[in-house]
Amino acid sequence: MDQNGSFPGETAGNGNAAKCGLSVYAAAPGTVPAPTAPECSGPVSQDGLTGSLALQNLQSLNQDEAATVLSRLDHLIRWAQAQQAKTLTRIHTQFRTEYHQDTATLDPAMAFSLAAEEAAAILHIPTNTAMMLMSEAGTLCTTHTPTLHALETGNISYAHAQTVIDQCQNIPAKELPSFQTQLLDLAPEQTHTQFRVRARRLRENTYPETIVVRQRSAFEQRRVALQPDCDGMSWLSALLPAEKAQAFFTRLSLAARGEQAHGDPRTVDQLRTDILTDLLDGGNHGATCEGDCPRASAGKRSGAGRSGGSKTGTGCGGHGSRARTEILVLISAETLLGADDQPAELHGYGPISPETARRMAREAAKWTPVERNPDTEEVLRVGKRRKVPDGLKQLLRVRDGTCRFPGCRTNAVISEIDHTKPWAQGGVTDHDNLEHLCRRHHMFKTKGFWKACQPSPGIIEWTSPGGRKYRTEPRLALTQDTEPAPPVPAPPVPAPSAPAVAAPAPPIPTVPALAPPDAGDPDDYGDDPPPF
Prior knowledge:
alpha+beta, globular, disordered N terminus, five-stranded antiparallel sheet, single chain, 532 residues, three-stranded antiparallel sheet
């Protein structure tokens, strides 16, 4: 819809409507609801979402009129969220029925998963978000119909409804209706944050036994999460018991204040971050580290952690063992050797500065040479066999980045390499017939619920159980070639501690760096490969 309320290819009524600022939402463009029976008190239309809604001449409204419109629009949003919950429940019911008809088995968990995946693809949201919405929708449409009604009539927001659902967990079934009513009575005129605090206190005061049960359940959800940010930075967060989190934060704060007291110019936030980075990077700075040790004080070094692939061992009395990790960096030979300053690609994140990539390269434990087309700069394929070669595995990780299922963000590092066309059906082990899938979506494809094909290298086209088509594209395009050129040694990296680099001759090589040696190949299944 444009600023005049027109849809692409349509007009917003006549010219006068456009001049007076008519903005129209048509649920089904081209249809006009009309009464179909004399006894109907209002317009009746076809099944589904139809009709239209107009906001006219917004520029002429005074402050009170605009406030009224704003309030009604908020009511409309809440009504729409209630209808979305009903629709999600309907989709779930249909999937459950069709799954039972197709398989002659009752598997509510599988039917729910398939329904949530379809909803996620339709709404372009992550799978976990769709599962949460569908689960909440089922609750609203069954045990929490008063809450659904309050949402539909605009008395509460969807965030309020989520709080009601959350605080009603572990409440005895016989007492649930009355407790739900008490919660809804608290909601009016309260922001979501205010309501959440009051609702939690009401539950804890009324049912104190739920505190232990909920804390035990919450403890099972502990986790560490990585969220990429902009400009070469990422968030690393952890969900852990409150008392431990508070203690850790206090320790970091005290250590940061101590560094400032000794003249460190960094802010407390910067020092907390640098000290935590140093600890996770393998440091153990107690009384044993002092003097000239470059890692003895967070005030003597920057907060950047070392790249993966570092060697296990001890550096001094205060340094513990450092676990070997794998971080893939794709960097051209020209950038590596300083001939240009093109950004490198950090797997799981995106572009990083050439300076950062060169520093990581100097600390790499292993190099893997690959080749690019000098004209298109696309990476050429590697080898052709059932067992996925190590170099091809790394290229696929950089190409895919994540699971290739629509909307899934599971990192390729913890995903599985799948043959798009199964090996048992003649599928080849090459980049144009391989993709990363997380275990869940790998299972969906293997069992035939979702079907996939790769019409061109790296492009995956999916067909859902409902027959809808979806397409996912790789982070990095790979192209076919008849026979890769043999690699030749390249000059060493100009750094004292630089490892030897084996890479194809310029101008076409790229190098995924920082991969530790593999003890074995878990994808070598001998004479009994899996059916994918």
